[in-house]
Give the backbone structure.
Amino acid sequence: MSPGESVLAPPDGVMVGMEELVVSQSEPLLVSQSVDVDDLRHLLHCLVREDCAHSWRNFGPEGTLDELLQWENERRPTKLFFFYVRRGDDMEMVAASAVADKLTRDFPHDGFCVLGRCYIMPQFRGRGFYRDVLRYRLEYCKAQLGDALNAVHIGAIDDRISRVITNHGLAGWPKFAHLGIEELTVAGEVRPVGAYMLFSPEFVGRMRTALAGDDAPPCVVELRKALCESDAGDVRNLGSVVKDSFDEARACGWFEKRDPREIERVLHFCSSIPLVGFDDGRSTG
């Protein structure tokens, strides 16, 4: 089946297709969960030749789509998406990407999606396609989880990608906040990668409920401020800021009569990535 024949019907609630994903008002993106064999081979060979932190370099250049899906899903439940533009009667691949329902199969908290494996083909870079691929994946997460969506995680090694995700301008979506640095092993080399998280407004609201009160000590005020700044993408090393403020607030008894579970889930996520130098030392349920 050719990519043109396997264009996805959008998930419920997601407007994707000729009218939704438009670049320069002239190049609609079509989305598929299948990929032409030659397109996949070309993509994987491009990755091997490129000095980047894309994890498919660990997969190798000769695998099939079924093998790639199996490789991805051994770690966590993952969907792959391939983006195309039409060129006459042909379809040309623009990008590939993935969405995982959770961080790992054994991560105990639902509602934390992961956007990964995005790769824009070299000939299509610098033309604004990344923002549309990002929007599609965010809308997919929302359509899949609805009100149960707590947060969306993404890693970025490229400064250009970091600038986009912290200032994406996508209507209805908060910006990604910088959590810290994680280390990924790609093709035998350890690479530092910026870790970012977008929190749903509902999830932030629940965290703020645990911080409400006129008698808040400075550490709680600092935590409130960090969460407010996370909405705007203006905070750096949010994971460590939350951990330090939370530990101090807990030590002074702030959470004795308040529910800290939502904040603890964020800390558990940060320690599970793991962020460099981050160890929350706690087990959460």
About this structure: Residues 1-25 have pLDDT under 50 and may be disordered.
